[in-house]
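Report of the visiting student (M.T.), summer placement. My assignment was to run the structure pipeline on a short list of targets and document each run. The first record concerns RCK C-terminal domain-containing protein.
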Amino acid sequence: MDVTEVLLPGVGLRYEFTNHRGERVGVVARRTGDFELVVYGSEDPDEGRPLIELNNEEADAVAEILGAPRIAERFADLTKEVPGLASGQVEVRAGSAFDGRPLGDTRARTRTGASIVAVVRGDEVIASPTPQELLLGGDVLVVIGTHEGIGGVEQIIRG
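After the run finished, the structure tokens were exported:
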């Protein structure tokens, strides 16, 4: 799918694409941090009809909801395309050394070369977690790296 990026001077950026039904859809990312979802009518292709406005927090929530089911699928696809790259899952057990501690305390990427790209907590997916993200017992870490790197992350987390 082709997404076009258009600079809107003084406003922000507009991302446009045509959906499977032939409708032009736009997302306006305002300099204020707010977002607007618009649809363009066939009568005037330059006039967008606003559908919804979202603040930054709401936009993050929608992105997480829409992206959550696809994260593991996309990483699986990526590992097929790049020889030597694999994805894995590592569970943080309740009461383990990292239960209740920040992700950064693991130093996983530095120690293994593998990256923790998401934390799955129940039905919630925390994509691109920061080093400050607290790990909790029951969390599942989505890890990308070599098989050895993923095994190394598992050894670190399981102690």
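The radius of gyration is 20 Å. The mean pLDDT is 83. I thank the supervising group for their guidance throughout the placement.
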